[in-house]
Task: structure prediction
Amino acid sequence: MEVENKVSKRNLTPKNSGVNIYNFNYGSYVIENTNKDLYLIDAGTKLIGAQLTGFISKKFGNRPIKKIFLTHYHFNHNGGIAPIINAFGVEDGVYTNGAYSVQDRSPYDIKDPRAKVEMLKAISNNSVNYEYCQSNTEFDEGNIKFKFLAPLPQYFQNGGTTDNPNGSTGAMILLEYGDFSMIFMGDIYHESGILEIWEEHTNDIENVQAVAWPHHGDFGAAKDTVVDPLLKLEIAMIETIGSSVNTINFLTGKGIDHLWLKSGNYTAMKCYKDGTYDKLTP
Result:
C-alpha cells in the first residue's frame, strides 16, 4: 500500500509513522497502531468475517487482534466476529454496547439470534474477555485511545435487548491519536439521535478530522445540523449503498473529502499525531 500523490488539504509534509485505518466492508474497520497492534470495529456478516480473516492474514500475518469493539447486534455487524476470534484470537477482549437485537422483521429475526449464538460460542471457546460499555468508557492503549460516545447512560441496556439496534442503544466510538481524532458512528444515523450524542460530547467532537459515516453511507445523516458541529471535519469513510452518491454530493458541497468503498475492495487512510492524514491506495 502506498500513499496517494494527493495528500490531505492540511498535510504538506511526507511522514512515515502513523496509525492505519482500513474500511473492509459492511462497517468493519481494522486499525493498526504504530506498535503494530491490531484493533477491529465491527466485522460485517459471517461471510464478510471469513473474507476479513483472509485480508488480515495476508496483510498482517497471524497476529492476534488486541481488542474488538462492536457497535450493535445486527448480523451484518457482528456476524463476522466468530470467524475472526476463531482465526486469530483476541488478546484483551470484546467490548460492546450491551443491547442485543430482538428485531422481528426478516431477515434479522433469524440471522441476528444466530449471529449472537455463534459469537458468544467463539468468545467462550477461546476464553475471551467480554464487556458491555456505555458512554465515556475509555481505553488508553498508550499511543492511541478509544472512547465510547454512546450509548448514553439512559439508553444503556447492560446485556438487555432492543428492537431497534440502529437506534440510541447503539455505540459510537471515538479514536484519538495525538491531535487526530475520528468517530466510528456505527449505524446511528437518525438526526435526533446523533444530535443528542453531540450535545453530551461537545468537547470530544470539536476537533474531529474524520468520521466513519453511519449506516454504510446513508444519506439520512447528511444534515447540516449533524456535520456542522464537527468543526474540523475533513474526510468521511463511506460505503456503496443506494443513497451514498447523494451523501458524496452533500459532503462535496460542504468541502469535505471522502473515501468511497467499492464492492470487492477496501479503502484506507494513515493518520498522524499532528492531526493530518493521507489517503492510502491498495
In short: The first strand starts at residue 2 and ends at 3. The chain has one domain: 2-9+19-281. The chain has eight helices and 18 strands.
